[in-house]
Amino acid sequence: MRDFCTAPKHIVDMSMQAIKVCIEQGNYMTVQSHVVKIRNLTRGPDEEELLRPKLCVAMGLTQLAAGDFRAAARSFLDCPPTLLNTYNEVITANDVATYGGLCALASMERTQLKTEVLDNVEFRNFLELEPRMRKAIAFFHTAKYSSCLSILEDSRNDFLLDIHLHRHVNRLFESIRSKGIVQYFIPFSCVTLSSMAQAFATDERTLEKELVVMIGKGALDARIDTKNRVSCYLSRLFIFSF
């Protein structure tokens, strides 16, 4: 088709069609190249307003496929609410809320969730379509981690059936839970395993194994005192006797 493109509008039309085909193929590198190509073309304000939502979600899907949750969150959060149902053959407005919310939970701090997600006037239009996702984000922001994780677990099967999301569900959930554990530690020097297990709706033995894995990966700078059943930050300069 490129040989027959004689004007910028022709290139835009061709690239938009190619983006749809490449998303179906899972060829996201080509999707990204076409998005960049369109963004580099000079367009009028009306065409810009029409294309911007579609380009944001196409780039978001590309970044999600690559496992770059922070970049994907930014792209979905930047999507204007004018997307509506204009791109349903690729993604719906409900999907934008779900993908953007999950990626934000997995990659953003609590303060960022408040300022860049919950207080985002444009993205709020998408979140209104998915009230459970909005509640999950609000619960995480207010440190009600068990309530947040419970909502996500109830939707896990739906996420696993999603054509774009299913490959990333386990990693997203793991990232969200791990980040919640790290955030839970921040105000304290030491926490008891019992109180922490209650906060994350689990038992002490399971939580202890989870903390050991996180410490081993370097995701949590802490040590576990198995005798006193507490876990403390090493950076707080506490000395333990085991």
Number of helices: 13
- Main sheet, how many strands, which sense, barrel? 3 strands, antiparallel
What is the H/E string? HHHHHHHHHHHEHHEE
CATH level 1 class label of the largest domain? Mainly Alpha
Shape: elongated
What is the assembly state of the chains in this entry? single chain
What name does CATH use for the topology of the largest domain? Serine Threonine Protein Phosphatase 5, Tetratricopeptide repeat
Largest sheet, order of strands side by side? 1-3-2
Share of helical residues? 55-70%
Rg on CA atoms, Å: 21 Å
Low-confidence segments, given as residue ranges, are 236-242
Number of domains: 2
| Straight-line distance between termini | 70 Å
Q: Which terms summarize this structure?
A:
3-stranded antiparallel sheet, elongated, 64% helix, 3 strands, Arc Repressor Mutant, subunit A, Serine Threonine Protein Phosphatase 5, Tetratricopeptide repeat, 242 residues, mainly alpha
Tell me what you see in this structure.
With 242 residues, the chain is mainly α. The protein folds into two domains: 2-187, Alpha Horseshoe (Serine Threonine Protein Phosphatase 5, Tetratricopeptide repeat); 188-242, Winged helix-like DNA-binding domain superfamily/Winged helix DNA-binding domain (Arc Repressor Mutant, subunit A), CATH 1.10.10. The protein has helices spanning 8-25, 28-39, 45-65, 69-77, 93-107, 110-118, 121-127, 131-141, 145-154, 156-160, 169-185, 193-199, 204-217, and strands spanning 190-192, 222-225, 230-233. It has a three-stranded antiparallel β-sheet. A hairpin with a 4-residue loop joins β2 and β3 (230-233). α1 (8-25) packs antiparallel against α2, α6 (110-118) packs antiparallel against α8 and α8 runs antiparallel to α9 (145-154). The longest helix has 21 residues, at 45-65. The termini are far apart.
